[in-house]
Amino acid sequence: MKVTFLGTNGWFDTSTGNTVSVLVQADGYDLIFDAGNGIAKADHYISQEKPVFLFLSHFHIDHIAGLHTLAKFRLKQGLRIYCLPGGAALLHTFVGEPFTVPLEKLPFSAHAIELEEGIHKIPFIVECRPLVHPAPCYGYRVEIDGRVIAYCTDTGVCDNAVLLARDADLLITECGLKPGDTSELWPHLNPQDAIGIAQKAHAKRLALMHFGAEVYKTLGDRTALQEQFGREFPGLIVATDDLTIDV
Ligand SMILES: [Zn+2]
Ligand SMILES: [Zn+2]
Q1: Which of 152, 164, 166, 213 has the CA that lies 20 to 30 A from 130?
Q2: Cβ atoms of residues 40 and 241 within 8 Å
Q3: 155 C-alpha to ligand 2 centroid (Å)
Q4: What does pTM read for this prediction?
């Protein structure tokens, strides 16, 4: 399957990219993780013929800002938006008047579905677990077409990130901080933290995204990570907007 990074910035858009959104194109479904501004590019890649499943990690605006672009899509088999308990009401507020076209008035069917922590068959397997963040936040693990993809952002180092990423073909996680930096009041990962989680979980590959827009000011700041840490974790991918990889 193909994984395309539609938006790879944390917090706000800059010349390095849009805020976070990741597209996973499986045989029968198109999956999207988070709806930062990058989601507006999804129709450059998908045919809009398959059902689209959108998984929201949390409601910080860099993860939902792109929802106001949903009205331009024509998803022939509709959209299911999975979120935390209590998230459906938030979605109907944010994707509603006076902010934008309400969910129920989009030109395709769109439903918000809250997931309890645990493992669900929707019909493919999805596991969701809380991460460590100032706001309630889910990490996800999906098993589809014989592959396992874990998506864990925004978070500090935590056991649930390791649990979700266990033996994953690909762990997609955040890199909010520069190497060696920490942020105790507002937990995020630096590249060493992310590699530590991937190693502990025995993930085969690790894609870094959600680069803190205020600290990774140029794409060169990102590629430096590949040089610095590529040997330590050979499956390291430093994502940029519109990068597509096969999984
Ligand atoms: Zn974020
Ligand atoms: Zn956040």
Answers
A1: 213
A2: no
A3: 8
A4: 0.98
